[in-house]
Task: structure prediction
Amino acid sequence: MSDSGALLFARYAYPPNELGYCGPSGAAELLRADLPGEIARRARGFSGAWAYLEYLSPGDPLDPAVVEAYWVGNDLLATSDFSDLLGFLGTRFVGQRGGTWESAGGRALPHHSFHVFEVYPWAAMLRRTGNPTAVSVLDRCRIRTGKVVSVAGETARVTSRPLVWDGSALAPGPPREESVAWSAGGRSLLAGLSPGDLVALHWDWVCDVITAAQAGRIEALEERQLRASFPSPESVVPPV
Result:
């Protein structure tokens, strides 16, 4: 297993693990850059993310390109046929109910945005009920982009675009400033942050400093998924 891939995985997997949403207990171990082997072992405990990584690379699921493809997006998602993805996920997500993934057909993609908006039940719940809690969970659970405004100790102020629900569509709204963490207890997988940095965010955590091209991929893949999950009324063909 790749050490650099394990560390990249940990950057994105730490925040939901620390909140107790996925993965094994002991999230602080994901911030041990000196223990990539332990991080690789723990990564297998993330049953959702690990399934996509194994699908993308049966050889080394923690190959850095594979990890980036799942969390951020890269050419691996543009040059492959994923027609067998739903069948593969069906063997991994037995008993997973409430989402729309089983009927996703040609829109299935081994990317975190697909898992958030199709496998989790929150998007389907939002369409049915308009529950504001669903908007909040989807907004925090997705990987989103931001720009650092200021840094103070282990926290930073960033601007990002929260998801906004208008009753039929879910889309990024106007930018707003928020407070996020990039280090915990003196440990971080980042060398540091500076005002102006483009960053990837997951829950209330800075996962990585990213390039403009990476930010564009995150936003484009999310836009693709939101169009699929919340199609405009004129795009829906009524049954005959």
Notes: The radius of gyration is 18 Å. The beta strands are 143-152, 155-160, 163-165, 170-172, 176-181, 198-202, 205-209.
